[in-house]
Specification:
The protein is α+β, with helices and mostly antiparallel strands and 158 residues long. Helices cover 33% and strands 16% of the residues. A 5-stranded mixed sheet has the order 2-1-5-3-4, with helices on both faces. The longest helix has 15 residues.
């Protein structure tokens, strides 16, 4: 199969890459672009570990073909911090001990950021609903929910 030339904006940077037509966006990010923050937990879109945003829409990158990224904007966990300054969500995950092994953490952070971009003042129920597609086997979810709510409060300046 001939590899396809793809142009996309990844974490704000115009990026060109080659990919096989059957290669997932997750594999392109990890194997071609060395953006290894997104993890493959299941490969079937059930766990959320590979979550990224594609033109502002939260997606499981294991379910999207790399070729579908042509002309699109992709945001990954690597683009979340501002240099050495962690995003408020990242800081709050640390503060509230909302991470352990780290497999689910990038996907949870991307999903939480997407939520707060859509709704800067979510209720606990809304956070739980929005993050329902992200599975964590280590922490339970209370610290994660608390961290997201605390970050939302800080980001609103409340």
């Amino acid at each position: 199969m001939a590899r396809q030339h793809i142009n996309a904006t990844i974490n704000g940077d115009e990026t060109d890459f080659l990919c096989d037509p059957t290669q997932t966006l997750l594999d392109v990010l990890r194997d071609e672009l060395q953006l290894t923050g997104s993890k493959e937990g299941c490969g079937t879109g059930d766990c959320g570990a590979c979550s990224v945003t594609l033109d502002g829409v939260l997606v499981c990158s294991c379910l999207v073909l790399g070729a579908e990224a042509e002309g699109k904007s992709i945001e990954t966990i690597e683009g979340m911090a501002n240099g050495d300054e962690l995003h408020p969500l990242q800081r709050k995950f640390v503060d509230h001990i909302a991470l352990q092994c780290g497999i689910c953490t990038p996907g949870l952070l991307i999903a939480a950021r997407s939520l707060l971009e859509h709704n800067p003042d979510p209720s606990e129920t809304e956070v739980r609903y929005w993050l329902a597609g992200n599975l964590c086997r280590c922490t339970g979810y209370q610290n994660i929910i608390t961290a997201v709510l605390d970050a939302a409060k800080e980001m609103r300046g409340a």
